[in-house]
Amino acid sequence: MKTSIFIITILIILTTSLAKHHACNKNDEKALFQIKKSLGDPDIFGSWQNTLDCCEWDYVICSNGRVTQFTIAGNMISGQIPFAISKLTHLNMLIITRTNVSGPVPSFLSKLTNLNYLDLSYNNLTGSIPESFGRLSRNTQHIHLSYNRLTGNVPKSLGYLNFTTIDFSGNQLTGDLSIFFGRNKTIEIARFSENNFEFNLSDMEFPETLSYLDLNHNKIYGSVPATLARLYLAYLNVSYNRLCGKIPQGGDMQKFDKTSYFHNKCLCGLPLPAC
Ligand SMILES: *[C@@H]1O[C@H](CO)[C@@H](O)[C@H](O)[C@H]1NC(C)=O
Ligand SMILES: *[C@@H]1O[C@H](CO)[C@@H](O)[C@H](O)[C@H]1NC(C)=O
Ligand SMILES: *[C@@H]1O[C@H](CO)[C@@H](O)[C@H](O)[C@H]1NC(C)=O
Ligand SMILES: *[C@@H]1O[C@H](CO)[C@@H](O)[C@H](O)[C@H]1NC(C)=O
Ligand SMILES: *[C@@H]1O[C@H](CO)[C@@H](O)[C@H](O)[C@H]1NC(C)=O
Ligand SMILES: *[C@@H]1O[C@H](CO)[C@@H](O)[C@H](O)[C@H]1NC(C)=O
């Protein structure tokens, strides 16, 4: 009697733990092995062995046996971002940051229809932002490409999308940023500092959702639009551009100190000296 209760208890424990644990999907495992191989099988993938379920491997997180998150931060991996990442079809978060990956921002990322969060900042990526990013999934809300060596115009096709966070700072990107703004957009955090953006800011319209706008160190001209004073801004920095004219008075505009506005062509009015 005691033994049968013991066996039943064991069975219950086993079945409940099996139900919770979904084995890693075979296609995902195959894609991960391809990723490891194309990065030259570096030491950091030591746990990526077929003796271990791939949901237990370092740098990945699964949900129901599918790889949903892939994060490499601060490891010295080199080479291009592997194509096999596009085969992780359930990926919703991809972070590769502060590594030595080089080559282009891969256009195949637009195939990842579940991707919500993309962070490729602080790498050694070159070339321009691919036109295919205009076909990124509507699910892609957060895009960080900051501190790489990206050049060229930001593709106009990105303007058809609705992002929550965009961080393109610290590249050599050019073009007009008005495609990301406008009343119907949903952008909240916009970081475009330290690039070569050159456009007239005067007539730009901003959505009510915007709370963080960093445009410092570009070649932006025109004036600071009065529409900005109608927003609830937590952060604003338009310093080191070619702006002119009076800073709009009111709203949150004077909440920021002069370093948010200094080093422009002829901006004036509080918190800068009077016009
Ligand atoms: C970036 O790539 C260049 C050229 O391939 C290389 O010289 C440089 O060391 C790389 N940067 C880093 C941080 O490794
Ligand atoms: C970074 O990548 C470049 C190009 O692949 C390579 O020449 C360089 O040796 C790498 N640097 C390090 C520190 O791995
Ligand atoms: C923005 O929304 C308004 C209505 O709220 C609409 O009339 C207008 O066409 C929209 N503009 C764009 C660019 O989607
Ligand atoms: C962005 O999202 C808002 C709110 O959901 C919507 O009204 C607007 O039309 C969208 N704009 C674009 C360009 O998709
Ligand atoms: C920027 O646009 C405003 C409004 O359309 C215009 O008055 C101004 O002359 C433009 N500034 C420059 C430098 O082109
Ligand atoms: C704005 O950016 C400039 C340039 O990077 C910096 O010196 C200044 O401290 C920034 N101001 C604020 C309020 O962050």
Automatic annotation (TrEMBL):
Keywords: Leucine-rich repeat, Membrane, Repeat, Signal. Residues 1-19 form the signal peptide. SUPFAM superfamilies: L domain-like. Residues 26-63 form the Leucine-rich repeat-containing N-terminal plant-type domain. GO terms for cellular component: membrane. It comes from the Eukaryota. Gene3D superfamilies: Ribonuclease Inhibitor (3.80.10.10). Belongs to the polygalacturonase-inhibiting protein family. This is Leucine-rich repeat-containing N-terminal plant-type domain-containing protein. It comes from Tagetes erecta (African marigold).
